[in-house]
Write a structure and sequence with these properties.
heterodimer, A: Glutathione S-transferase Yfyf (Class Pi), Chain A, domain 2, 2 domains, 13 helices, 10% strand, globular, B: 335 residues, Ubiquitin-like (UB roll), Fumarate Reductase Iron-sulfur Protein, Chain B, domain 2, 3 domains, 5-stranded mixed sheet, two-stranded antiparallel ribbon, 43% helix
């Protein structure tokens, strides 16, 4: 049985609870055990680094060390968390070899606060990579009860998942395929478009809303123009900007959008025959009803 | 092996269109060598910039298979990994187009005027007293010089500018090339205008806060300048001397860390009110997020409950300890 240390993250415990719900639901259906880290901290979503690299490394060394103390890989369902903490893990593993003084400094802070030191004995793994690599596409296919035939899915990877770490386990950041391989495994059809690996605009949304929404709008329109029925993202921050702010985005770019944005575990969950409500598909700003209609799934 | 080059061609007043050329190439051929072969043997009208052929001059930057890169640096073998396998007997297809975010003059040649003007706005020269002819050389220690090495490698090729997602939606943003250069000047021990520079770069449209952290500049830079990392260092220097009330982007950063110190992770309700609403002082700000609040309420997404992390005590003292340590460091070097 696959077991992971799991931290839902700030957004999946806040405005995207349906992500936590659907991750839990598909894990149960696939027989994956998640041990929730109750003492974890926010990864900083790239903001700690702007204060200092030391802050980003130290707080996230604490997060990694929590998983290490359980002797489990650290699972996330957030591109930003993966990018930030995956990069910290790479940097600290490199420091073990090449800059031990820096690692001693980070661990000095941890030990002083009675936290376990970082040891470099685990890995940080997005649920997308866990499905493709650990669980396996063939095994996933075998679990599909309701193939999502005819559903045209446009991926939206999230910048941090593709471009912060030096080494990605499966994807070439210039031509990623892992999401598309999941779409195919669950019977859906991938839609390719330029926006799939671009920025959703979330980091600017609190202060430069016009630019942020223009960015989101360009990508949404690109997906729609390429025939997508929905966008599927492994990042709750992208989800916030693309779904929760879609009505404002549509006003900024002066286009009708109305394209549902699914979290990756929700798409997988539908194929596993899990009821839409158990996946939180009724908790979206942009209604997901037309997806359910297309797939002839009753909204119970 | 045979490879098809699908090149976006354009001239003034005409709609751009793809033209395909199929060549017999060696996997070790660079993209530039292939373009030269097309120009010299198949179609002399194909227009592109080139010069050194050796990743030094930065002239031959173009979009190659979906991202900006130097045609003289990338070769057929490496590009085959970036494209989908060809269908049936068809040869693999390389898609070549001009840089983004700049107007096209002809084919793969873009007008770089905005690129250079944006660079000029950050005053890319060591300032004032150092511009005067000194009586003796300005000496730097190896450590002071080391701070300039990474950004000093920039060849101004335009790859980062072309792929910058922020520049695409905000013409005022000066771009990653200019901000990487800005860091080089802020960190230069010979420059005596650091404080003014930080004021100037602390701008939410043109300066560092215009960056959306998409990491594309780091991804495409052929010289490992890592512009986003340099932008982050400038942000750090600005954050060290500014308080919460300075601006909303600064408040965004400070509040995020304060909330993590408070609860271990972010209570999004507080985040919205504190950052956008400036602690209930910015009525317009609050009104601007009210529709989002209603939308979250009506879709059942509004987070009514919040549970702090059980590790909040450790997280709080950890952040305080690092901040205390870093503030000492920050007075010594920018990094």
């Amino acid at each position: 049985m696959l077991r992971y240390a799991y931290f839902p993250g700030c957004v999946a415990q806040g405005a995207c609870k349906e992500l936590h719900l659907s991750t839990t639901a598909i894990s149960q259906a696939l027989g994956i055990e998640l041990i929730e880290l109750k003492k974890a901290a926010c990864c900083g979503s790239g903001t700690y680094k702007e204060d200092s690299q030391l802050l980003e490394d130290t707080v996230n060394a604490l997060n990694i060390a929590l998983a290490e103390s359980l002797n489990l890989p650290l699972l996330t369902h957030c591109s930003t968390w993966q990018g930030v903490i995956g990069h910290v893990d790479e940097r600290l593993k490199d420091a073990q070899e090449n800059n031990p003084d820096y690692l001693d400094k980070v661990n000095g802070f941890l030990v002083k606060e009675n936290c376990s030191p970082y040891q470099g004995t685990t890995e940080v793994k997005h649920i997308l990579w866990a499905l493709v690599g650990d669980y396996g596409l063939e095994a996933l296919k075998a679990k599909v009860i309701k193939p999502l035939t005819g559903l045209k899915c446009a991926s939206f990877y999230g910048c941090y998942l593709l471009r912060t770490q030096k080494n990605l386990p499966f994807d070439n950041p210039l031509n990623p395929q892992s999401l598309e391989s999941i779409f195919t495994a669950v019977g859906a059809t991938p839609v390719y478009y330029q926006g799939r690996s671009k920025c959703c605009g979330w980091p600017l949304s609190s202060y430069a809303t016009q630019q942020s929404f223009q960015m989101a709008g360009n990508n949404l329109l690109d997906a729609i123009n390429n025939g997508a029925d929905c966008i599927v993202t492994p990042c709750p921050l992208c989800h916030l900007n693309l779904d929760s702010r879609q009505p404002e985005v549509a006003k900024v770019i002066k286009e009708k959008l109305d394209i549902p944005i699914l979290h990756l575990p929700q798409l997988v969950g539908l194929a596993l025959g899990i009821k839409p409500q158990k996946l939180g598909l009724n908790h979206h700003v942009v209604s997901t009803q037309k997806i359910l209609n297309k797939l002839a799934i009753s909204n119970q | 092996m045979k490879v098809t080059f699908k090149i976006l061609r354009q001239k003034l007043n005409f709609t751009p269109k793809f033209q395909s050329y199929t060549l017999d190439v060696n996997p070790s051929n660079t993209i530039l060598e292939c373009l030269n072969k097309i120009k010299w043997e198949l179609d002399g009208s194909l227009t592109y910039r080139k010069n050194c052929r050796n990743t030094i001059c930065g002239s031959c930057t173009m979009r190659i298979n979906g991202r900006s890169a130097l045609a003289c640096k990338e070769n057929i073998a490496s590009e085959l990994k970036n494209i989908d396998p060809p269908l049936g007997e068809n040869p693999p297809e390389m898609i070549i187009s001009p840089l983004n975010n700049l107007p096209v003059i002809k084919d793969l040649v873009v007008d770089m005027t905005n690129f250079w003007q944006d660079l000029e706005t950050i005053e890319p020269y060591i300032s004032t007293s150092s511009r005067n002819i000194p009586e003796k050389e300005f000496l730097q220690t190896p450590d002071q010089r080391k701070l300039l090495e990474q950004t000093g490698n920039c060849i101004m090729c335009g790859a980062c500018y072309s792929d910058c997602n922020a520049k695409e939606v905000n013409p005022l943003f000066v771009g990653p090339h200019a901000l990487a250069k800005s860091y080089r000047l802020v960190a230069d021990s010979r420059d005596d205008d650091r404080e003014n520079r930080l004021e100037k770069y602390d701008d939410q449209d043109s300066g560092v806060w215009g960056c959306t952290r998409c990491y594309l500049c780091n991804e495409v830079c052929p010289m490992d300048v890592a512009p986003l990392d340099q932008i982050s260092k400038i942000k750090g220097a600005i954050l060290a001397k500014k308080d919460l009330n300075s601006s909303r982007p600064i408040r965004h950063r400070k509040v995020l860390i304060d909330l993590v110190k408070q609860d271990g992770w972010i209570d999004e309700r507080k985040f919205g009110v504190m950052v956008v609403g400036n602690y209930f002082r910015d009525v317009q700000g609050l009104l601007s997020i009210a529709p989002l609040g209603f939308r979250l309420l009506s879709s059942g997404k509004f987070p009514f409950h919040f549970q702090p992390s059980q590790g909040v005590k450790e997280v709080r003292s950890l952040i305080s300890a690092v901040q205390k340590d870093h503030s000492v460091l920050n007075n010594i070097v920018v990094e």
